[in-house]
Design a protein that fits this description.
The structure is a single chain. This protein is of the alpha+beta class. It has a single domain, classed as Gcn5-related N-acetyltransferase (GNAT) (Aminopeptidase, 3-Layer(aba) Sandwich), CATH 3.40.630. Helix content is 30%, strand content 32%. The protein contains four helices and eight strands; from the N terminus they run E-H-H-E-E-E-E-H-E-H-E-E. An eight-stranded mixed beta sheet has the order 1-2-3-5-6-8-7-4. Helix 1 packs across helix 2. The chain is globular, with a radius of gyration of 15 Å. The N and C termini lie far apart (32 Å). It is an enzyme of class 2 (transferase). It comes from Chryseobacterium camelliae. Its EC number is 2.3.1.-.
Length: 170
């Protein structure tokens, strides 16, 4: 059965669902023994700020929110300083705060999300996608590798060093 999967901007009405999904993700990271997202970020203010700024996106499966992410155009101050080198200096989409509802866990949702993000990037005429993750976020590291993202070096973000990746889209 083919589900209808869509990426759309998050609305303020989505806030509580998004926050619930993020809380599940924060707890999963904690259970995995990760330090990522364990210092009170992201929080409900982060979600409200994302939505207000137009950064918040949800991927829906048959209308139900399965994944939350923040997509930010050309603006991640932490990325201006990298221990290493980005592939490009053009316009880029930054992917932050990827979280999957546990109802949809293990279904390849993040891979599908990146397909949609790459489509969004291409349709907006933007050159590349940049993303960072924790050293210990093995699931995300595997996905980025599988999707053809290039490891570019390290950036300092949210109080720690993160692995940074880029993929040229156009």
């Amino acid at each position: 059965m083919n589900s209808e999967i869509k990426l759309r901007k998050a609305e303020i009405e989505d806030r509580d669902i998004i926050w619930n999904i993020l809380q599940q993700a924060i707890e999963r990271r904690r259970q995995d023994g990760s330090t990522q997202w364990q210092q009170g970020y992201p929080n409900l203010d982060t979600v409200e700020s994302d939505i207000a700024k137009g950064f918040g996106y949800v991927m829906t499966v048959d209308g139900e929110i399965a994944v939350y992410t923040a997509l930010i155009l050309n603006d991640e101050p932490a990325y201006s300083t990298i221990e290493g080198e980005w592939l490009s200096n053009g316009e880029f989409v930054v992917v932050h705060r990827v979280a999957v509802d546990e109802k949809f866990a293990g279904q390849g949702m993040v891979k599908k999300l990146f397909d949609h993000i790459e489509e969004f990037t291409k349709s907006n005429g933007i050159q590349s996608v940049k993303v960072d993750t924790n050293f210990d976020n093995i699931a995300m590291l595997k996905i980025l590798e599988g999707k053809g993202y290039t490891y570019c070096g390290e950036v300092f973000l949210a109080g720690g060093m993160r692995k940074a990746f880029e993929k040229i889209i156009i």
